[in-house]
Design brief:
The protein contains 8 helices and 16 strands. With about 260 residues, the protein is an alpha/beta fold. Strands 1, 2, 3, 4, 5, 6, 7 and 16 form an 8-stranded mixed beta sheet that branches. The protein has a 6-stranded mixed beta sheet with strand order 8-9-10-11-14-15, with helices on one face. It has a two-stranded antiparallel sheet with strand order 12-13. The longest helix has 16 residues, at about 15-30. Pfam families: CN_hydrolase (PF00795).
Length: about 260
Amino acid sequence: MRVALAQLNIHFGDPDANFAQVETAVQKAAEETVDVVVLPEMWNTGYALKRLNVLADDNGERTLKLLGRLARQFKVNIVGGSVAVARDGHYYNEMLVVNRQGQLLSRYDKVHRFGLMAEDRYITAGQTENLFPIDDVPAMGVICYDIRFPEWLRKQAAQGPRVIFVSAEWPTVRLPQWRLLLQARAIENQAFVVAVNRVGSDPDNDFGGQSLVIDPLGKIVAIAGAHAQLITATLDLEQVTAVRGQIPVFDDRRPELY
């Protein structure tokens, strides 16, 4: 599986500018002949949470229309990062995943809200898992703060995904933890981790990128810098089979105790 990580500088509170740059990013990724394009968290609005009443995408319709069209046009799967979505009187931080035919594979509302960026005040927490196939490869997706909850990822990883996609707006000040947490999630779940962060700044935070691809042994396969860029990597999925065969942690679990 060949993946492209679109590390973007998100325009604060400007959906039109952000939709335009996502279109450009997917087009550039397609030129690299990739299977999957992955986007960062809240790319349509940034954390302009106080203005969600006018900025949030109504039921994700604009996002789905764009991602579906781009997926069909360039014949790529898109893990659509996440966007601010308005639905049934609530606002969600929602990941949308579409296949090469532009069909919706999954929609996931972020389960763990990050209080330091006021999500607990404006965003409604999700309640469901996020497992989906990418070209018949079992995969899963989580959003930013979710990675600090290993029990949440393990609950889903026990069901067999070989790739864990992560979309984030992770501030620069905590980037050392970003890398370590992602490596731990890869090692303990014996899966590839493909994690996309943003760059740039908003009124309250600076974001330093360092989007990562990590193999099932925790080795960094690819890493981005601190500027807007597109990086690619090829995942040798046979590595997952080999690692899980050597140390069968999923068989050796004692879920009756924890």
